[in-house]
């Protein structure tokens, strides 16, 4: 088994996915099944007032929700907040990662987000629930972030070690987001994505 496939299998098992059907298969078939694996993403089918297709993808932007307390949030709650408080079409992020590690889809992956001013046309936005100037991202959140980011790098043929590919919101705009305690973990995320691809 290739190192990349082993990392994927180990990560999936650590998140509790049942991969037992893989093992009776021939080696090549099992490898193909792992190659086609993607993180479990819960699609919420949120309603947006408008949508615009994203013309390309050259970076992944990491955020935190950044509310005054380090609380959990759902994609539906952020969606409502962005519509009613910000006057946006809906949730600005493509993905939200809950405190328990659950990945919820916000905007559809192929559509333009509203999460990084001047960079929305070519970026994917991932937000972790919490205020990471106050608290720490949970292990479950970090595990899910690693898998989701690595999968997106492979899907969009991005080099995770290239400058400007996996960034914090603060790298692009005048903000504290994604908080010091998550921003400091980005080098670890980039290395995981690099190893995931080899």
What does this protein structure show overall?
Helices cover 32% and strands 12% of the residues. The protein has helices spanning 3-14, 27-35, 75-84, 139-155, 180-183, 186-196, and strands at residues 41-43, 59-64, 95-97, 103-105, 123-128, 166-168. It has a six-stranded mixed sheet with strand order 1-4-3-5-2-6, covered by helices on one side. The model is unreliable at 12-34 (pLDDT under 50).
Features:
6-stranded mixed beta sheet; 6 helices; globular; alpha/beta; single chain; 6 strands; 198 residues
Largest sheet: 6 strands, mixed
Q: If you average the pLDDT, what whole number results?
A: 85
Rg on CA atoms, Å? 17 Å
**Coarse morphology:** globular
Number of strands: 6
Number of helix segments?
6
Helix/strand structural class: alpha/beta
Hey, roughly how much beta strand do the residues contain? 5-15%
One letter per element, helices H and strands E, the order comes to HHEEHEEEHEHH
Set out the fold topology.
Blueprint: H1 3-14, H2 27-35, E1 41-43, E2 59-64, H3 75-84, E3 95-97, E4 103-105, E5 123-128, H4 139-155, E6 166-168, H5 180-183, H6 186-196
Parallel strand pairs: 1-4, 2-5, 2-6, 3-5
Antiparallel strand pairs: 3-4
Helix pairs in contact: 4-6
Concise synopsis of the structure shown:
The chain is α/β, with parallel strands linked by helices and 198 residues long. The chain is built from six helices and six strands, in the order ααββαβββαβαα.
């Amino acid at each position: 088994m290739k190192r990349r496939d082993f990392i994927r299998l180990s990560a999936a098992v650590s998140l509790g996915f049942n991969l037992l059907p893989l093992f009776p298969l021939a080696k090549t078939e099992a490898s193909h099944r792992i190659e086609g694996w993607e993180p479990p993403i819960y699609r919420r089918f949120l309603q947006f007032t408008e949508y615009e297709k994203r013309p390309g993808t050259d970076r992944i932007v990491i955020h935190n929700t950044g509310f005054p307390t380090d609380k959990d949030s759902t994609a539906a709650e952020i969606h409502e907040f962005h519509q009613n408080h910000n006057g946006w079409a809906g949730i600005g992020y493509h993905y939200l990662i809950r405190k328990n590690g659950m990945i919820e889809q916000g905007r559809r992956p192929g559509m333009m987000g509203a999460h990084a001013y001047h960079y929305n046309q070519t970026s994917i936005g991932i937000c972790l629930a919490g205020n990471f100037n106050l608290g720490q991202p949970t292990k479950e959140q970090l595990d899910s972030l690693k898998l989701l980011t690595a999968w997106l790098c492979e899907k969009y043929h991005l080099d995770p070690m290239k400058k400007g590919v996996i960034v914090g919101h603060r790298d692009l705009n005048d903000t504290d987001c994604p908080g010091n305690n998550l921003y400091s973990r980005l080098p670890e995320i980039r290395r995981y994505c690099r190893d995931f691809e080899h």
